[in-house]
Write a structure and sequence with these properties.
- With 520 residues, the protein is of the alpha/beta class.
- The protein has two domains: 3-181, 3-Layer(aba) Sandwich (Leucine Aminopeptidase, subunit E, domain 1), CATH 3.40.220; 196-515, Zn peptidases (Aminopeptidase), CATH 3.40.630.
- The protein has 15 helices and 20 strands.
- It has helices at residues 37-42, 47-53, 94-107, 123-136, 165-168, 184-208, 216-230, 239-245, 248-254, 307-321, 367-380, 394-400, 412-425, 458-467, 504-515, and strands at 3-7, 18-26, 29-32, 63-67, 76-84, 113-117, 173-177, 233-237, 262-268, 276-287, 327-337, 349-351, 357-359, 385-390, 405-409, 429-431, 449-450, 476-480, 486-487, 498-499.
- The strands form four sheets. The chain has an eight-stranded mixed sheet, with helices on both faces.
- A hairpin with a 5-residue loop joins strand 12 (349-351) and strand 13.
- Helix 6 runs antiparallel to helix 10 and helix 13 (412-425) packs across helix 15.
- The two termini are 34 Å apart.
- The structure holds ligand BES, manganese (II) ion and zinc ion (ZN).
- The site of manganese (II) ion has 4 residues, from loops.
- Zinc ion binds at residues 284, 287, 305, 366-367.
Length: 520
C-alpha cells in the first residue's frame, strides 16, 4: 500500500511529483476548494478560470492535469472535481472528499509522491482524504509479468507483460497537506484511515486472487498467518473435523471439489469488552454452480464468491489493529462449489450442523448451505449479535444494482444500526424485508426445508432460509453484497475494477458502535 504522511507544508512548497487540488461546482463555474489557496496564488488567482478554460466544471471525479507554474515545487498540478460546493462555509461531505482523493490517487499511478491539498482541516475531512487516497491508489499487481521476455533488455519495449509495469505501479507516497501533523486527534484519524484502507485492500487482494491459488486450505493458511502477526486466536476445522462435527451443509457444498472445505474461527478479544459481535462470511472460493452448473457468461467472475469471508477476515484484523473495546469473532465458511462424481446432486438431502435436513433442489444455491452451518455454530457462543456477509443472490443485484448491498435482519433496530453504520462508513446499502409468506415456497415434501423457493424476491427468500439457522433470541443481520463486491465495469472514485473490499468498513464501524455501547 502507498505510504501515508501528514504535513503542514504549503501546497506550493512541498517537494513532490504532483500536488492535488480540489475544485467544486459553484453557481457561476468552478471554484477552488479550501486547501488550494497557495496554488491559486501561484496561478495569480486565476486557477478556477484556467480550469474552466480547459473545460473543467468541478463535477465529481473529473480530473484535470496542469503543468505547475513558477512558485510551485511539484511538477504537476492535478485538479479533481468535488461536485457541488457546500452551502455557505459548511464542510465538504466526507464521501465526496474520499471519492475525489481516490480518483486523484488513481490518476497518479506510476508517480512516486503526491501532496493532497484538499479540504482537510477537521478530523472527518482529514480521515476521508487519507482513506480515499489510500483506497484509490490500490492496484492488484500480483499476477503481472515482472519481465517481458521479448523485450531484449528494454523494460519499456513492447506491450503486455512487463512492458508498462511502471505506469501501473500505485502512487508510492501520499502526503496529506493542511493537517496538524502533531495534533493527537489528527494523528489518530490518519492512523485509523491507514488501518481501514490496509484491511479493505487485504480483502480486495483476496477477492482478486484467482481460485487456482485461493482455495479453502490456502485461504485458511492466510488467516493463520495474519492471526499470528496480529495476536489473534484462530482455529481451523478441516474436512475430517467437519465430518466429526456434523457440518453437513459445508461438507455437502465442498464434496464435489478436489479442494476440501474448511471452517475457520478467528477471534479478537479485548479485556475490557462488554459486548461480543460474531461475523459470518460466505467463502465460496469458486462457484461453478455445482451439478446445477452455471452457463458460460455467468462463471467468469465467480472467484469473487468468497468476498463475504474476505470482508469478515479483514474486519476482525482491523478491530484488533484499532484495539477496539469489543470482542469480535469471525467465522469463515470456506468451500469450492464444483461438479464431479462426488458432488451433491439436485434432490439430495443434507443433514445440517443444526440437525435440520435440507433438500438441495439447486446446487447453485450453495451459499446459504455453508452459511447455515456457520450461523448455527456462531450462535452457540451466545454473541450479542451475529452479522453474516455474502455474495448470496443475483436477485439482490437485480433489486439494488451493482453499488448497493441489501440489509436484512430479525430485529428492526439492529437492521437500522447496520444500515446507519454503512452510511457513516461511506458504503451504500438499503434495508430489505423478510416477508414471512415467502417461507412456504421452501417447503420440501421430504426434508425440513428446501434450499430454493419462489423466484420472485429471491434475495429475501435466501434471507428467510438463513433465518431458520439463527438461534431463537439471537439478534442477527444479513448483508447480501452480490452487487457491490466485485466491480466488473471501470474504476470510479476510490473503487477499483475487480474486488472492492465491500463491507469491511461497515463491519468496522459497527464494531466501533458496539464498543461504544450504541448497538445491541
Ligand atoms: N454466488 C451466487 C450469487 C452471485 C451471482 C454472486 C452473481 C455474484 C454475482 C450464488 O451462489 C447463486 O448462484 N445464487 C443463485 C441462487 C438461485 C439458484 C436460487 C442465483 O442468485 O441465481
Ligand atoms: Mn451459486
Ligand atoms: Zn455462490
Amino acid at each position: 500500500m502507498s505510504a501515508l504522511t501528514l504535513s503542514s507544508s504549503s501546497a506550493a512548497t512541498l517537494r513532490a511529483d504532483a500536488v492535488v487540488v480540489g475544485v467544486a461546482k459553484g453557481p457561476d463555474g468552478p471554484v477552488v476548494a479550501p486547501g488550494g489557496e497557495p496554488l491559486d496564488q501561484a496561478f495569480g488567482g486565476s486557477l478556477a478560470g484556467v480550469l474552466e478554460t480547459l473545460g473543467a466544471s468541478g463535477g465529481e471525479g473529473e480530473v484535470t492535469k496542469l503543468p505547475a507554474p513558477d512558485g510551485v515545487k511539484a511538477d504537476l498540478v492535478l485538479a479533481v472535481g468535488l461536485g457541488d460546493a457546500p452551502e455557505g462555509d459548511g464542510p465538504y461531505d466526507p464521501e465526496a472528499l474520499r471519492r475525489a482523493a481516490g480518483a486523484a490517487a488513481r490518476a497518479l499511478a506510476g508517480r512516486k509522491k503526491a501532496g493532497f491539498a484538499l479540504p482537510a482541516g477537521d478530523e472527518a475531512s482529514l480521515a476521508a482524504v487519507c482513506e480515499g487516497a489510500l483506497l484509490g491508489a490500490y492496484s492488484f499487481t500480483e499476477y503481472r509479468g515482472k519481465e517481458d521476455k521479448n523485450a531484449k533488455g528494454s523494460k519499456s519495449a513492447g506491450k503486455g507483460k512487463g512492458g508498462d509495469g511502471d505506469r501501473n505501479a500505485p502512487l508510492a507516497e501520499v502526503t496529506v497537506l493542511g493537517a496538524k501533523a502533531r495534533d493527537k486527534a489528527h494523528k489518530a484519524a490518519a492512523e485509523r484511515a491507514e488501518v481501514l484502507a490496509a484491511e479493505v485492500n487485504r480483502a480486495r487482494d483476496l477477492v482478486n486472487t484467482p481460485s487456482n491459488d485461493l482455495f479453502p486450505k490456502s485461504f485458511a493458511a492466510a488467516v493463520q498467518s495474519a492471526a499470528k502477526e496480529h495476536g489473534l486466536t484462530v482455529e481451523v476445522l478441516d474436512e475430517k473435523a467437519l465430518a466429526k462435527g456434523g457440518y453437513g451443509g459445508i461438507l455437502g457444498v465442498g464434496q464435489g471439489s478436489a479442494n476440501p472445505p474448511r471452517l475457520v474461527r478467528l477471534s479478537y478479544t479485548h479485556s475490557k469488552a462488554k459486548k461480543t459481535l460474531a461475523l459470518v462470511g460466505k467463502g465460496i472460493t469458486y462457484d461453478s454452480g455445482g451439478i446445477s452448473l452455471k452457463p458460460a457468461g455467468h462463471n467468469e467472475t465467480m472467484k469473487c464468491d468468497m468476498s463475504g469471508a474476505a470482508a469478515v477476515f479483514a474486519a476482525v484484523v482491523a478491530a484488533a489493529r484499532l484495539g477496539l473495546r469489543v470482542n469480535v469473532t469471525g467465522w469463515l465458511a470456506l468451500a469450492e462449489n464444483m461438479p464431479s462424481g462426488t458432488a451433491t446432486r439436485p434432490g439430495d438431502v443434507l443433514t445440517m450442523y443444526s440437525g435440520k435436513t435440507v433438500e438441495v433442489l439447486n446446487t447453485d444455491a450453495e451459499g446459504r448451505l455453508v452459511l447455515a452451518d456457520a450461523l448455527t455454530r456462531a450462535c452457540e457462543e451466545k454473541p450479542d449479535a451475529v452479522v453474516d456477509v455474502a455474495t448470496l443472490t443475483g436477485a439482490m443485484m437485480l433489486a439494488l444494482g451493482n453499488r448497493t448491498f441489501g440489509v436484512m435482519a430479525n430485529d428492526d433496530a439492529f437492521r437500522t444500526a447496520v444500515h446507519d453504520s454503512a452510511t457513516e462508513a461511506g458504503e451504500p446499502s438499503w434495508p430489505m424485508p423478510l416477508p414471512g409468506h415467502l417461507r412456504k415456497g421452501m417447503d420440501s415434501p421430504i426434508a425440513d426445508i428446501a434450499n430454493m423457493g419462489e423466484r420472485m424476491g429471491g434475495g429475501l427468500v435466501a434471507g428467510l432460509f438463513l433465518k431458520e439457522f439463527v438461534a431463537e433470541g439471537t439478534t442477527w443481520a444479513h448483508l447480501d453484497i452480490a452487487g457491490p463486491a466485485f466491480n466488473e465495469s471501470g474504476p470510479f472514485g476510490y473503487t477499483p475494477k475487480g474486488g472492492t473490499g465491500c463491507a469491511v468498513r461497515t463491519l468496522v464501524r459497527l464494531a466501533e458502535r458496539a464498543a461504544a455501547g450504541d448497538v445491541v
